[in-house]
Specification:
single chain, 227 residues, alpha+beta, four-stranded antiparallel beta sheet, 10 strands
Length: 227
């Protein structure tokens, strides 16, 4: 990918889930009990109206979801937060909520029930970084496997991910002060990110933005490089 293509690539405008057939649905859980039962009984569930018609056009398109995972929030799980497991979807069905006997609730609302053949622990958990998952998100399998934190899940190209990781390293490593990316020079000067090219300054941004809001930070950087 050349620099022009990279800078003009807008992930927010690309509906990957309508093109891909190997999708991962990452959903939230409301309690440790729900997580434990879903893992033990090999399933995950969520309201149908969250998926249709907002995300998918028909029930048949739900079959594109080949994997499910569960997001463990910092509020509930503290040091065990993040995304730690991945399940192969064995079957997808539409059921009434009161038919999910493992977690009883008196409701006839329609739910999507994903039966999982096996839950596997990720070799490295996907850490929480700025971008939480609520109530769910859908990603390509390739992007899910390549991501180290939840901000990276929303970056669709290897170039975006490379830039993100370089900026993240710069924001925390005092020995990493400068790098070049597609002809742009990135330098940390007194805890301020300065981007230059051909002696022209494109951006000055507090490194705190990169540390505290990594996804927002990379969007700001790309916009500056684009201009």
């Amino acid at each position: 990918m050349n620099i022009k293509s990279f800078l003009n690539f807008d992930t927010k405008k690309v509906k990957w889930f309508h093109k891909e057939n190997n999708l991962v649905l990452v959903g939230t859980v409301k309690s440790a009990k729900q997580l434990d039962i879903c893992l033990a009984e090999k399933f995950y569930y969520m309201p149908l109206n969250l998926l249709i018609p907002q995300i998918f056009y028909s029930r048949n398109q739900l079959e594109k979801i080949k994997y499910v995972s569960m997001y463990q929030s910092i509020n509930l799980y503290k040091e065990k937060s993040g995304i730690r497991c991945l399940g192969n979807v064995e079957s997808v069905s539409i059921v009434k909520r009161n038919e999910i006997k493992e977690l009883p609730k008196e409701s006839k609302e329609l739910y999507v029930l994903f039966k999982v053949s096996e839950w596997k622990s990720l070799d490295e958990p996907i850490e929480v970084a700025e971008s939480p998952i609520y109530p769910f998100e859908i990603f390509t399998f390739q992007n899910f496997k390549a991501s180290r934190d939840t901000a990276e899940l929303f970056l669709e190209t290897k170039e975006e991910r490379e830039l993100y990781r370089l900026l993240k390293q710069m924001s925390v490593d005092v020995n990493f002060r400068e790098f070049e990316f597609y002809g742009f020079n990135f330098r940390d000067y007194n805890d301020t990110l300065i981007i230059t090219k051909d002696d022209e300054c494109y951006l000055q941004l507090p490194m705190e933005v990169i540390r505290e809001m990594p996804y927002s930070g990379i969007e700001t950087v790309k916009e500056a490089m684009r201009n």
